[in-house]
Amino acid sequence: MKLQNVKKILHGCRVAKTALICILGVPMFFVFSEVPANFIGSFLHVDPTYTGGLVAEEIVDPIGNASEKGGLVCYTVHQPVTGARWQKSSEYWQLVFNYNGAAAQKNTVVYIAADNMARGEQAWNFALKIDGGQGQVYDNKGSLICAAEVYQLNDGEQVKARIPLQDKRLQPLLASKKTWHYFDFGGAAGGASQASDTTPVEASMVAKKKDKGKDAEDEAFIERVKKMYDAAFNNNGASDSSDDGVDPMVAINAALEEYGKKIEQNPNDYISLANYGSWLAKKGGESSALKAMKLVKEAYVYLDKAAELCDGQEGEIEVLMNRASVSASVPEMVFKKSEVGANDFIKVANLSNNKILKAYCYAMACECYKKCKRESNAFIALQEAKKALE
């Protein structure tokens, strides 16, 4: 074995190389362990009446405060549901609020106007009030119509509200084509004045058809960003060990030995901890399925400790890129790390001023969110990736 070949792998542009190594080092076990779930998923179809109905409108930053802590990042309007089985209400309408962190507002009122409902002098037909995890629906005279189902998910970052449509005052929504939504945080759902001073958000009530062309366009954009990233950061002489005729396990063990010695000298060396964890995960890629699972679990002991130690310190980007890249590589169905990866990528994007790195991190966050079924977050991350290159 040529020593320079090993050194070629261990050195170079640290941050970029880490991401490349982790992504290229996805073990075949990891790849194939996703196949059964994808195969089964292609035959299973979950009726949308169980999940809130088809999405009619997805509005990013509807009131311009998404960057604030607790700001409303995305507002999703679903098509009204009829004939739902095994649900509290057979007819209901779902609205979803996604916040930047846990919602700061304890009291939210949304005043809603529909295109097929008479409202007299008022600007709205009815109001949805969410307070302390409870929901109520009022008419525009202030009278209670019904209670609404409210679910708080992801530690308060997402709030789902389901409005039952059994009451005749709400049933016209089933045939509505368009609605307008006025947001009032801290409101009391008591009168028209609360909605008169705000600009409404317009939303369709008809489910959008899946745009396969748009999906292909988004996938092509993400691939283009990855290539831009590789060209900008990975064209520095670093290469995969297999290209140089070096046994991958020899190179991996050499890296683990080097970083292991540094950790022995300084157990709080978060750079070495992160790199050691990444190389452990890569070693899993060259191992049996059972050993791979054990090695990846051990890798996160080092990666998580490094991420905790590096907060606000020099080298934080390198550490987070290590953990993010591993999290993006391992199968979600086994390790449940996609959301960790997405959060790390987004934090790196916020720490960096390099537009290519920012775009790459947001694009990778998009892919991670899709793996853990956080579609709204994936949508937002993709928009941020596109904005980064503007």
Summarize the structure.
46% of the residues lie in helices and 18% in strands. The chain has 14 helices and 10 strands.
Rounded mean pLDDT score: 83
Q: Give me the number of helical elements.
A: 14
Distance from N terminus to C terminus (CA atoms, Å) equals 46 Å
General shape: elongated
Strand content: 15-25%
The structure class reads alpha+beta
Query: How are the strands of the largest sheet arranged?
Result: 1-2-3-8-7-6-5-4-9-10
Number of strands: 10
- Low-pLDDT regions: 1-29, 35-44, 236-242
One letter per element, helices H and strands E, the order comes to HHHHEEEEEEEEEHEHHHHHHHHH
- How big is the Rg? 25 Å
Helix content: 40-55%
**Main sheet, how many strands, which sense, barrel?**
10 strands, antiparallel
Strands, helices and their partners?
Layout (H helix, E strand, L loop, with lengths): L2 H8 L3 H11 L3 H14 L6 H4 L3 E6 L11 E7 L13 E8 L7 E8 L11 E6 L2 E6 L4 E10 L4 E7 L13 E8 L7 H4 L4 E4 L7 H22 L14 H18 L4 H15 L4 H21 L6 H14 L2 H4 L2 H14 L3 H17 L3 H14 L2
Antiparallel strand pairs: 1-2, 2-3, 3-8, 4-5, 4-9, 5-6, 6-7, 7-8, 9-10
Helix pairs in contact: 1-7, 2-10, 6-13, 7-8, 8-9, 8-10, 9-10, 10-12, 12-13, 13-14
